[in-house]
Amino acid sequence: MTDLNAAWADRWLRECARVLAMHREELIELDRAIGDGDHGENMDRGFQAVVEKLGDGPSESVAAALKVAAMMLMSKVGGAAGPLYGTAFLRASAAVGERDTLDGPAVEAMLAAARDGIVARGKADLGDKTMVDAWSPAVVAAGHAADGEAAFAAAAAAAEAGALATMPLVARKGRASYLGERSAGHLDPGAVSTSYILRAAVTAAVSEISAGGRS
């Protein structure tokens, strides 16, 4: 087990940038099938801006790092993804508050706040073929873990399953909903990028252990 602290939060956001850059073309193609085709480019650009804003670090706290992410995603990411992810990270930052480290319940609360922010902003529900289909099962899964690293591992696995489960769904929100039945048979790009972001949190925790951040 490793402490999910400010150093971890910085590493998480940098890992998000790396992974989303790696999957940029995949996300573009997924979005091209049912949307504007810009999700991969937007997410890549947004998280590169987050890393640039973080600088050499370290952040003062987990909440501070998440707030940086929120502000940069809101200002640099176009389309629906910027406001949705920006709101998610802003709500997550508020939920973390002054905690120095995150245990399982804190991770669950943080993810729930992020999910609720997305729901409030996008007016989407579970089953609408949006990123909510990855976030909602992630919140539930995180609630079964006692420590923060295990909570994120459970959340990431649930988000990955949730993203895959969007394939047969008919979109009821966003641009994809314009396609009606033709939206079925495609993965929702926002759900997929969510799964990458949550998996990056696990990778960051493992990297912290390797770097000597063991609790």
Describe this structure in words.
Helix content is 67%, strand content 0%. The protein has 215 residues and is mostly helical. It has one domain (6-210): Serine Threonine Protein Phosphatase 5, Tetratricopeptide repeat (Alpha Horseshoe). The longest helix is centred in the C-terminal third of the chain and has 22 residues, at 189-210. The chain is globular. The model has no long low-confidence stretch (mean pLDDT 94). It comes from Sinomonas terricola.
Summarize the structure.
The chain contains nine helices and no strands. The radius of gyration is 16 Å and the shape is globular.
CATH H-level name... which superfamily? Answer: DhaL domain
The computed structural class is mainly alpha
The tally of domains stands at 1
Report helical residue fraction.
55-70%
Estimate the strand proportion.
under 5%
- What is the name of the CATH topology? Serine Threonine Protein Phosphatase 5, Tetratricopeptide repeat
Overall radius of gyration? 16 Å
**The first-level CATH class name:** Mainly Alpha
Give the CA-based shape: globular
Following the backbone from N to C, one meets helices and strands in this order, namely HHHHHHHHH
The poorly predicted ranges are none
- Please give the count of helices: 9
CATH second-level architecture? Alpha Horseshoe
Q: What is the terminal separation in angstroms?
A: 6 Å
The count of strands amounts to: 0
Q: Let me know the average pLDDT.
A: 94
Largest sheet: none
Domain DhaL: 7-203
Protein name: Dihydroxyacetone kinase subunit DhaL
InterPro entries: DhaK_L_YcgS (IPR012737), DhaL_dom (IPR004007), DhaL_dom_sf (IPR036117), Dihydroxyacetone_Kinase (IPR050861)
GO molecular function, one term: kinase activity
